[in-house]
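Project standup — Tuesday

K.O.: blocked on the structure for the chain from last sprint. Re-posting the sequence here as requested.
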Amino acid sequence: MHAPNRTITTPATRYGDPIHRPRPVEPHTVLLPTEVPPGVDWVTLPNGVRTLAYTHPHPGPTVEAEPVRAEPIPRWAKATALLAPTLGGGIAAAGVGISYAAPGVLAMAEALWATVAVIAAGGLATLLLRTGRSRSGRGAGPVQHITQHITASGMFGRASGTFNNR
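H.V.: unblocked you, prediction finished:
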């Protein structure tokens, strides 16, 4: 009989995996202070590791500048700053008032248009009645003139008069 094939398989490994294939420890290179180029310095990273890194050159001795004096605010700026909320509040109040008054204004406009229509209809009816009488054959007689003479004597005198029909 033939013996079964016995092969040993190893799991796939990644380079640098500390369990399967650890990376060899390399010796650190040591730089002398004279070998460090300008603009490079030792820095401590947030995780506590010290390393070389490019740094910004430190400025020279600081010269204390005179403190900047605050200039006074001009009157026009103060007045504008105080008027801005007042003006805005007035506009907002006017808008609220108009929104409450709008239904009444619309109803009043409808009533005014109705009044105009009634006046126009009354004027048109009067005009039609006048033209209708003169064209119809009934009662188109002569026009009567009445003359009245009134006389009074004194400031509180009694008035008397006569009518003349022509």
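K.O.: great, moving the ticket to review. The first helix runs from residue 75 to 135. The chain has one helix and four strands.
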